[in-house]
Amino acid sequence: MVVPEKDNIRLRELRPADKPRLAQLANNKKIWDNVRDFFPFPCLKKNAIDFIAICNKEDPKVTFAIEYQGDLTGVAGLVLQTDIYRKSAEIGYWVGEPYWNKGIATSAVILLINYGFEKLTLERIFTGVFEHNKASQRILEKCGFIHEGIFKNAIIKNNRVLDEYRYGITKNQHKAL
Ligand SMILES: CC(C)(COP(=O)(O)OP(=O)(O)OC[C@H]1O[C@@H](n2cnc3c(N)ncnc32)[C@H](O)[C@@H]1OP(=O)(O)O)[C@@H](O)C(=O)NCCC(=O)NCCS
Fold this sequence. Notes:
By secondary structure, the protein is α+β, with helices and mostly antiparallel strands.
């Protein structure tokens, strides 16, 4: 295991055996409505198999299963940036609906940013959240991210133009928490 445990929540590598549950949890329009369009919907077992195979090839590991009390509940990951942005990463996460509002995503984000700053020696972690996604904005604020601004009309999702709320945290801001 690469990332330590917190509040019965741990981040671990995705395994081929996760395929059916991963597809079942991910196959939810309420999740798809808050993520990028490349996230498959409907999410089939084949999509889960392909996703797990890609994650298993990562070096360094940046995508993890979120496990709560031994159950697979979702996925959290970092997208490492390149060139002059190579000390930055974008964070992304989702939790299956049966597990919402138990603090799982919050703990997963804390574990993942610890890993990003300590093990991957990142300087900055950031993300963009759809304007209506108040739960995700709350998670980021609880984890110490700064609301850095609003990118007006940056997103089109479900044929609606939306603002993107941008959040970021630096290694030093994280250390000071
Ligand atoms: C957003 C998501 C990750 C939340 O996961 P979770 O495990 O339920 O999150 P947590 O329990 O750690 O925290 C949710 C927080 O948002 C709050 N919240 C939930 N719904 C809310 C709403 N409609 N308005 C305001 N706050 C809300 C909760 O009360 C909680 O805050 P609290 O601890 O202060 O009470 C999950 O709903 C999800 O996967 N959604 C679809 C995908 C997605 O949005 N991914 C993030 C893209 S940026």
